[in-house]
Amino acid sequence: MQRRAGLASILVMLSTLLISPVQADSLQIWDKLSGTAPKGYVLLLRHSYAPGVGDPENFRLGDCSTQRNLSDEGRQDARELGQWLQRRNIAIYRIESSRWCRARETAELLDLGKVRANKNLDSLFQEPEIENHPKTLRARKQIIEHRSKRGLLVMVGHFANFGALTGIGVDSGEGVLVRSSKSGELKVFGSTPDFGR
To answer: Distance between CA 45 and CA 35 in Å, rounded?
Structure first.
């Protein structure tokens, strides 16, 4: 029953998302940030491609054999995105990841620095209420508080979580660059390239 409620919540969210097509200028912000320690910017990166949907019934945190994991293509996509970011020479504030194996592995394969686990990025796919879930609210608060800090904060997580934060659906391995306004509204400034299969 809980899974059905979670899936229903996802379908409702999908029907109301403001999905914006990737535009040519969605990458221009990265040119402006190259070689800098940008202030307040956060990259919300969905984990790379992991075949399937949701998690198996026997899912156990910390046991990757019970979880969906990255495919070889997903691993390569994560490496390529990490290399793309490294070429831009953008100062990194910190790399944080969901505790799910597919998100953690994506973060590690970026090769941008030490990865710190953040339980507020753990998948909310099966939760009945996502937008006002405590994890969503805490992640939003963290992004807002990063507004005054230098360096790019990279947060690697899941479709449902980032959809609840931004109103935008992101593909596997895709990220959106956000920054909080003074009033606490999260504004999307661009996206990452598509290194998909």
So the answer is: 21
Backbone φ and ψ for 35, nearest 5 degrees, come out as: 70, 15
Sign of CA dihedral 78, 122, 165, 153: negative
Cβ pair 92, 71 in contact under 8 A: no
The domains located in the chain, with CATH, are 2-15+38-49+58-191 (3.40.50.1240)
DSSP state at residue 39: B
CA–CA distance from 4 to each of 10, 33, 141 (Å)?
A: 10, 42, 29
Give CA–CA dist 167/126, Å, rounded.
18
Tens digits of per-residue pLDDT, 58-73? Answer: 899 889 999 999 999 9
Q: Is 39 exposed, middle or buried (0-12, 13-18, 19+ CB in 10 A)?
A: middle
pLDDT digits (tens, 9 = 90+) for 73-129: 999 999 999 999 999 999 999 999 999 999 999 999 999 999 999 999 999 998 888
